[in-house]
Each structure stands twice: as structure tokens, then as C-alpha cells.
Hints:
The protein is mainly β. The protein is built from 4 helices and 28 strands.
Amino acid sequence: MKKKRTIAIVIPFFLLFSLTGCGKKSEENVNAEQEITTPTPTATPTATPDPYAAPAGTYFSETTGLPIAENLKNQRPIAAMVDCETLAFPHYGIAEADIVYELMNSIKNGRITRFMALYKDYAKIPQIGSIRSTRTTNIWLASEWNAIICHDGQAEYALDYLAKDYAQQHLSGIFTRIENGKAWEFTEYIMAGDIANNAASYGIDLNYNQYKQSGEHFIFTKYTTELDTSNFQNATNVQLPYDHNQTALTYNSTTQTFDLSMYGEIHQDAEDNQVLSFKNVLLLDSDYSVYPDQGNIFYHIVDNNGDGYYLTNGKLEQITWKKSGENGITQYFDANGKQLILNRGKTYITYVPSDVWGSLSIN
């Protein structure tokens, strides 16, 4: 606001009339010269918010790319082994998993598969399972996430790998048993509090330790944006060549995710009927070898690479994959050889045996 200050001027009487014509002008000039102006404060520029940043108090999960509580940033995921035999049904808490690996468990029983369900924020899941034994390939995949493997025993040939430094911190056969009228091997579940309580008892690091691998598992699109799939092929139905459990994936245009079914029925969790559904699907071609007992196998994924497909939003792109070392991060590359960019959300991953890769049906 401008403030004015008046200056008194004494003029002899005899000059009064002679100065009358210019007196008014002089006074105005003096007054103008004496004006004091208070400067208007300059506003500090406001930084433009980053539209792709994680909301306050959150960070982008390494498993889904979605925002979760910031205090979980250093927490190790868990990798829960879950049987896909009908005797293990119904499942609990699988639809809440961030990533679900499905792997052929044995060449017997029609190449029956097992899930390995990966969870970052596992404490909020009231029940997971039932929990079954692990295999060699699962150890290699879980360890690249520095995940705590949660299982009920293991195949004989997996013991040597569980003993390795990067996989020693695992939890086996110590979760909650629930009477459900089934055989003993189908009664173990991870209940709320089981991980924290057992980790304390067995000296398990709940936070990432020295065996965490550097680098990103997935490269995600910018937050709130979607991948441009205009050049992708249409792909709305997938039939996996797993004769026993008949795994299939069907694109749901309402949720823009792929719904999983087994044995001809949509897979739903028992506790809330939530459908097992995925934003991303990775179908990977891999050779395997059979151990000399009961048909158990391991995939040739260590220090190896192969072809595959990436599906999202009802579309498909041909890709390649590569994994270096037993606990090295698996990397994915698009058709141009650049690192694959995924949409944010849950992911389904399966290694399809090379001898039936040609039987994989996608349309």
C-alpha cells in the first residue's frame, strides 16, 4: 500500500501571487518525489507435484509396482508353496498374492503343478495355503527375490540348495495345523502372526539381508499409466499344456485382468470367493531334467535363457528371458531386445516345459 507524507513550505507573502501559477505544480512534484512505496512481497514459486509419484506414506512395491505402506520397503517377501492337486482345494489367500509361479511338479500324475505364491505384505493375509513341499527350481526363483521360503518339507534333491547361504533362512513344517478332515499333508496353513513368531524363534531375517540381489525384477509403466499395446497381438484365452489340472487363463474385459481356472472351474479362494486374477502373464519356454526318483524335475533356468510371451490387457507380445546364477534376477526382454515394460499389478509366471511348448494354446 502506498503512503504519502506532506512537506510544509513557507513562502514570503510578496511572492505569493507571483508563485501562485507554479505553486500547485511544485507541490505536486515535491509530493510525487516524496512518495514512499512499500514493495509487494514476491510469491515463492510452488513446485509442480509429480503426477507419477507414490502417494504420501507409500512406496512402489517391487513385486507389483503399486503403492504400499512405506514401512514395508525393507521387508522380505515370503514364497509359499501350495499344492494344485484337488485334495489341497479349496485354497486360502492365493488371490492376494502379488506374484504366482506355477511349475510342473512331476512328470507323473499328468504333469501336476504347484503354485509358489509370493507376498510382500503378508501380515494382512489371515490364512494362506495349504502349504506343501518345495522343489529345486522354487528355491532358485524364491531366492532371487531374497524371499523367505515357506514350505512343508522338500524333495530330496532340494536339500543341497536349501543348505546354500542364500537359501538357508527358510521355514518348513512349523505353521498352523487345522483339522479339516483331510490327510495330514493337507492341513498346514500360514495364519496371521505365524511368520513373525517363527522368524523370531528360528533367527530368520524379516528384512532384506546380504543376499538380496541388486537391480529391478520388473520395469513398470509410470504410475497411473498403461502400456501401449496397439502393436501387440490379440490374446484373450490361454490353455496351458498341464493335462492333470488343466490350467487356463481367460481375459476379463471388465477387470482388464486374466482370470485363472483349474479343472474347468474359475479359481476362487475359500474365505472370500476372490478370483485368482492377474494384470500380467509371463509364459516362458524352458527345458527340464528328471531326477532319478518319483519323476521329480528341475528346470534349466540357471545361467540360461529362452523364449516366451507377455500378455496384458488382452494382448500378447513375444519376449525372451535370461537368468544368471542360482539366485540371480530373471530378466525379460521385448521383441526389440530392450528390457520388458510391464503394467502395474499382479503377475502370473509359468515355465512351460519345452517338450510341450508347441501344445501351448493362445487365441
